[in-house]
Amino acid sequence: MSEQRLTHVDEAGTARMVDVSDKAATVRQATAEGFVRVAPETFRLIVSGQAKKGDVLGVARLAGIMGAKRTHELIPLCHPLMLTKIDVDLEPVESENAIRVTATCKLTGKTGVEMEALTAVGVACLTVYDMVKAVDRGVTITDIRLIEKEGGRSGHWKAAE
User: Fold this and answer.
1) Model pTM?
2) What is the pLDDT of residues 4-21, one digit of tens each?
C-alpha cells in the first residue's frame, strides 16, 4: 500500500470535511451487506410474518432507506447527498437462521456513497433487532461491510468473496 493520509484529517491532525469542490461529478454506486442472526423460532416468526410488531422485513427495508437518506446527520463529516437510488433487500438465509441485508446506493455526484450503503445496512439490521428483541435477547448483528463500489477517482472495487 502506498503512503496515504486519512482524507478527513488535515495537516495539523484536525478532523475536517473533505473539500470536493474541484472534483468532477460522476456516477457512483456502492453496495454493502450485513447479517442479523436469530434463534430458529425467531427466524420462523420473521419469515412467516407472525412477529408481534408486524412485518419485520418490510419495516426494516423502509428504515434502511430512511437511514441512507440521513447519513450526513448520523456520521460526522459526511456530505449531504442527493441519492438517486436506494435499494435495501432482506434475504432470509434458513441454513444460518439469519437475515442477509444488502443495500445499494447510487448518485451522480462529487463524492462516493459507501457510507450511505453501510448506514442503510446498519439501520435495517438494528430495526430487525428492535422488532424481535422481546422474544430473542440473543440476536447478533455481524459482518457489516462494503462489498462493492464503482465510480469516482478510485474506479471499481469489489471485496474478495
Assistant:
1) 0.90
2) 555 666 777 777 777 787
